[in-house]
Amino acid sequence: MSEVSAEVPGALLEVRDLRKCYGENVVLADVDLVVEPHDVVCLIGSSGSGKSTLLRCINLLEDIEDGVIVFEGRDISDPRIDRREARSRMGMVFQAYNLFPHLSVLDNCTLAPRHVHGLGRSEAEERARELLAQFGLAEFATSYPDRLSGGQQQRAALVRALCTQPRLLLLDEITAALDPELVGDVLGIVRDLAAAGTTMVLATHEMAFARDVASKVCFLDQGRILESGTPEAIFSAPTQERTRQFLRRVLPAGPA
Known about the structure:
Layout lengths: L12 E10 L2 E11 L4 E5 L6 H8 L7 E6 L2 E2 L7 H5 L2 E4 L11 H11 L5 H14 L15 H13 L5 E5 L7 H16 L4 E4 L3 H7 L2 E6 L2 E6 L1 H6 L4 H10 L6
Parallel strand pairs: 3-8, 3-9, 6-7, 7-8
Antiparallel strand pairs: 1-2, 1-4, 4-5, 9-10
InterPro entries: AAA+_ATPase, ABC_ATPase_HisP-typ, ABC_transporter-like_ATP-bd, ABC_transporter-like_CS, MetN_ABC_transporter-like, P-loop_NTPase
Keywords: ATP-binding, Nucleotide-binding, Transport
Pfam family, one: ABC_tran
């Protein structure tokens, strides 16, 4: 691992010099990222650029070859740390929902609060039911995931992540598997979470959403964060030609 340098004051998450390989294939190289409380950081870039892998590394679902991940002032990339405990303070939502099919929606949502965070059943269920009602899913609490539509399953996955009251929410292309008419519904919920001050890092292909909601946008290309800045800077005046090429392909009018 790289030598730990001074932390960024006030940062909730700091990634420094992160490197991730699959065999000879380098999928992340020299990645630096700082996330402060209440930030909404959108990771954009072509498929295969490393967005999802970066989220999985932050959540300790992948081993890294080099670099440091500091979360809440603690080096969680240290191999001696308890990964389960470190991960318990984050919530992650995947594009394929990953709900347990043999558990009801309510049981999916109370599993981690009860067995990881030590909440009693009644308290965990009360918290879950409040969130399910907030997300329009109260009537599906006792249903199994296969009885829900794709949009409802994704909302249930968001509720499950929020039930642990995470300090950091990681969202991996959560609209990618949805029918187009359901995308706005799920993004509206994420927009509300951002407005409420939830700290998030999300990989997304939804450029309009990133432009409107992000506090910071990071453009990834071939495993590197090639450019980062405010949405206005990235979408209106990118400094890198590769960023401009990408935006010309994905935006109706491209960058100015």
